[in-house]
Specification:
This protein is of the alpha/beta class and about 260 residues long. The chain is built from eleven helices and ten strands. A seven-stranded mixed sheet has the order 1-2-3-4-5-7-10, with helices on both faces. The protein has a three-stranded mixed sheet with strand order 6-8-9. Helix 9 (about 210-220) packs antiparallel against helix 10.
Length: about 260
Amino acid sequence: MSRSGGAQTVSLACVAGVATLTLQRSHKRNALNAALVGELRAALAEADGDGSVRVIAMQGAGTDFCAGADLEEIAASQTKGLEAGLTDARHLGALFQEIRQASRPVVAIVRGRALGGGCGLATACDLVLACETATFGYPEVHLGFVPALVMAMLRRKVGESAAFELAVRGHRIDAAEAASIGLVTRVLPEEGFQSAVNRYLRDLARRPPGAIALTKRLFHGIEGATLDDAIARGAEVNAVARLSDECRDGVRRFLTKKGD
């Protein structure tokens, strides 16, 4: 599975169970416009629907992951009224939801800048691998704007105080600080970054896909649930998982090895 070229703003390639979605607007620092968001949603759905895919990675072409929304498109929408802006916002919001709803883990691979909507895109992903020189932030406030679409996810990911400061100060933070507050999963050295990313993704792709899908569904599905409800749902997933072929094979291999 692969596609690229033409006027596309997103390319998709799959190697060894890892589908890589690459934002292809490097001349605009991969700024998010309606076309890119639409193609990213389509590529995500295509990758998640491919039985050979185990992990979905997102990255930016060139030196940056994504520098935020395309401000020329934002300016154009300001002349069209509330409904036009609401349509655009819901389009991006749907992408963030679809990342969470995908059955495969979605991993952001961040080099350079991940700012505004680009930082939101990384925040929406299940895991974030960042180069040590990467920078993150929500500078919207400096333009009189609000990082509104990502707010719910940001609060859950980094906590109330850190999320509020990021939103109202609009300052940039480096990869180490982003990791310390939970925005980034792992920080990797600039030297050998791509090789380290590839090893991580290949290792993740070797995990049993059914177990990963159940884990992701439960992890996001218990958000907002009471403790009792969350444990009850966990018990249901436990019962389903133990009857899967993956679990039967895994337990059999373990017991056979233990008996040797």
